């Protein structure tokens, strides 16, 4: 997608900035307006957040709607809701994987196979492998990831870094230079208050 934006907006860096923001946030362009699903987003607020003049946003909208390939893409954009941020609060864990681009497909496949063969229940998978970004995958796990599975994942090829987002503070002891454990302080506090 970034190559498409680069091709169509190469002479318009400010418009490209707007288009990238719209794409990354799943904001669609329809009938001269910008929408978050069916809710119109105020242009003045967008200009403040993106850091461009409102005219730039209007020019971007006009350009997108007059350029048929862009119009086809931008009128169908939608944000994707995710459990990633709320998972530790709900008592679930999130396995965040930073992957090597050349091993991306194989690494994702091996992780899912490993989780499946060990009976780990996966609730959601979110993954991106865009050319100009780090390759990342997020796996939301129903419950907690068994330590032995976490150790096996660390040994699979193709991973730059593993981060486990967990509600449990005691999993910090499994940290090494290759991986990282981030626990949910809200969940730990709630558990202490309930005890």
Could you characterize what this model shows?
- The chain folds into two domains: 2-74, no CATH class; 87-194, ACT domain (Alpha-Beta Plaits, 2-Layer Sandwich), CATH 3.30.70.260.
- The longest helix is centred in the middle third of the chain and has 14 residues, at 104-117.
- The N and C termini lie far apart (50 Å).
- α1 (2-9) packs antiparallel against α2 (13-25) and α2 (13-25) crosses α4.
- Helix content is 44%, strand content 22%.
- The chain is of the alpha+beta class.
- The chain has a five-stranded mixed beta sheet.
State the gist of this model.
By secondary structure, this protein is an alpha+beta fold. The protein is built from 9 helices and 8 strands.
How are the SSEs ordered, and which strands pair?
Layout: H1 2-9, H2 13-25, E1 28-30, E2 33-36, E3 39-40, H3 43-50, H4 54-66, H5 68-74, H6 87-90, E4 93-99, H7 104-117, E5 122-128, E6 135-141, H8 147-155, E7 159-166, E8 179-183, H9 185-194
Parallel strand pairs: 7-8
Antiparallel strand pairs: 1-2, 2-3, 4-6, 4-7, 5-6
The CATH architecture of the largest domain comes to: 2-Layer Sandwich
What profile does the largest beta sheet have?
Answer: 5 strands, mixed
Strand content: 15-25%
Unreliable residue runs: none
CATH class of the largest domain: Alpha Beta
Mean pLDDT: 86
Query: How many structurally independent domains?
Result: 2
The order of strands across the largest sheet is 5-6-4-7-8
Structural class: alpha+beta
Using the coordinates shown, work out and report the CATH topology of the largest domain.
Answer: Alpha-Beta Plaits
Helix content bin: 40-55%
CATH H-level name of the largest domain... which superfamily? ACT domain
In N-to-C order, the SSE pattern is: HHEEEHHHHEHEEHEEH
Number of beta-strand segments: 8
Global morphology: elongated
- Supply the number of helical segments: 9
Radius of gyration based on Cα positions: 21 Å
Distance between the termini: 50 Å
């Amino acid at each position: 997608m970034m190559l498409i934006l680069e091709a169509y907006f190469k002479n318009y860096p400010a418009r490209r900035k707007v288009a990238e923001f719209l794409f990354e946030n799943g904001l669609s362009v329809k009938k001269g307006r910008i929408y978050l699903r069916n809710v119109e987003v105020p242009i003045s607020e967008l200009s403040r957040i993106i850091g461009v003049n409102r005219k730039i946003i209007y020019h971007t909208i006009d350009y997108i709607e007059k350029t048929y390939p862009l119009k086809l893409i931008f009128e169908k954009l939608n944000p994707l809701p995710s459990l990633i941020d709320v998972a530790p609060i709900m008592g679930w864990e999130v396995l965040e994987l930073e992957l090597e681009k050349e091993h991306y497909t194989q690494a994702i496949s091996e992780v899912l196979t490993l989780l499946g063969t060990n009976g780990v229940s996966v609730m959601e998978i979110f993954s991106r492998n865009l050319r100009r970004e780090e390759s990342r995958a997020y796996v939301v796990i129903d419950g907690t990831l068994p330590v032995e599975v976490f150790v096996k994942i660390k040994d699979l090829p193709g991973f730059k870094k593993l981060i486990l987002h967990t509600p449990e503070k005691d999993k910090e002891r499994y940290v090494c230079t290759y991986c990282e454990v981030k626990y949910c302080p809200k969940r730990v506090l709630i558990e202490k208050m309930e005890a």
